[in-house]
Amino acid sequence: MNWILIAVFMVSFSTSFAFSETRIPTGQGDKGSYFLMEKSQKNGITRALTRRTGPSGTRFSLREFNCARQTFRYLSEGDTLSELKKRKLSNDRFVDLFEGSASWNVGQFVCKKQH
Known about the structure:
Strand order of the largest sheet: 1-2-3-4-5-6
Helix content: 10-25%
Number of domains: 1
C-alpha cells in the first residue's frame, strides 16, 4: 500500500523539473545544498521530496516526518528521480531526528509552520 502511495505521489512530477524548488537552510558542516521539491501532508504526517547537490553529486530523497513527535523515516532515495521512483527502502519505523543532521534540517524546514 505504501509503495502505491509513493508511486502516485511521484507521478505528479515525473515528467520534468518544471516544479519550483525552495532552498533549505543547512548547518555549516554540510558542503551540499538542499532543496525542497515537493511537500504534502496527510493524517499528521508530512512527506517531503528533496534534492541535495554537492561535491559528491546530486541525490534525491523522499522522507516522511511526524512533526509533532520529531521523528522521520526514509521512503526512497536515488541519484535520479527515476531511480528514486524504482527504489523502496524498508524503513517502516519512524526514528528520532537528531539536531544537526540533514534530516533534522529538512524536518525543521517542512515542519516549521505546523508547530
